Please model this.
Amino acid sequence: MNVQSTVSRYSPEFDMPVRGDTITAERYISKGWMDLEMKNVWPKVWHLGGVLADLEEPGDIIRHNFAKESVIMVRQEDGSIRAFYNSCPHRGNRLVLGEATSVPRIVCSYHNWTFDLDGTLAKVQDPEDFAGGSPCGRVHLSELRCDTWGPFVFWCMDDDVAPLHEWLAPFPERLAGYGLDNWVRVLNLSVDCEFNWKIIRDNFNESYHLPTIHPELATFINDGLPDTLFEMYPSGHNSMWMKGHQATTRADYHTTEVPAPLDQIARAWDIDPAQYHGRTGDLRAAVIEAKRRLGPSRGFINYDSMTDQQLVDYFHCTLFPNLTLTMSPEQMQVLRTEPHPTDPEKCVFQHWCLYPPVAGMREVVTPIGSVPLRHDAVARHSVYGDGVSVGFVADQDLSIGTSQQQGLNSRGFKGCILPDQEKRVQRFHELLNDMVRPGG
Ligand code: FES
Ligand SMILES: [Fe+2]
Model:
């Protein structure tokens, strides 16, 4: 009988040392810590601002509110996209109040200052009343860096941060095979939560919680320790490859039949699950073969550019500090938490799901059920606890957030005790320590 190893596996090429800094509760509950993150962390990273599908024509604008900040991304007449702080240079009023709009010019609702799409002040009331002459043509909206990758727009507050594609490394290269450029954001969900943003970051930096929080995933995602591959990159980003189309190899799970929902997946690819009685682990290879053979004729044209691993496995990409991209060949999940404007014990959780366009496909099965395959088919913001789902698995993750936040407030909590498979959590906090309090 094989004895399953229960030691975690890190890629030898992409492993990183950790120091063992104590992860205390302060970072989850203190306003002072939150203020230091706002000053020293958030300006130093690229932020996913939205999707290109919302910026098709000149004058299309999307707004991204982030903590106390607000940024607008504007499609220009020349086709480029520029990002500006959403703050009027006159006396600071926010210029754009909705999530998305389309305008010939940007007009402030307070004193009607009017800006061209490139951010140049074009029109003011009483221009001759300014000492030194009219400010038109001389005053500009305050601009930030803006760039695109795949179907996404990003912005960054700091000129010294690496260019976007360099900052995203190694993911643009690793994800190229999925052919993400034309994937459609079908779900655009967000929810106000009663816990610090890092609670869910930690959750996405480990798979230790899967057997407890998501027990049903064990039937089709193999979260067994030596099977799961963890990688940590010098950039601070990390990843986790989990074998899919295979039940967990954890010691307490046994099956001889192909379990649901793997049996339906097998049938969908013309595979008889009964043939895999007693050797359910072999089904994964059969699905690879079937997807290669049948996929393109069923409209999954991107399969040709995917590796075998990409065709069946789950690739969890966690970008420092707060963005997770979870890949399967037919779905990309964007999972992110962002800080509350003022309260360190609150955050906003966002969950987008993108799908490749497949000819003839009208609906896709999403984490909230079947939904039409079109841009933002479901877009909604809710409050956690009101019973509005942000996706089955995400709901499970969020379910521990509030009680963990409460427990971290206890005088009895002395700091985290982590197994080796949570090294990505440890490293995340050490990177954060170095940025929040440079010099220690
Ligand atoms: S604050 Fe914008 S025009 Fe006055
Ligand atoms: Fe989870």
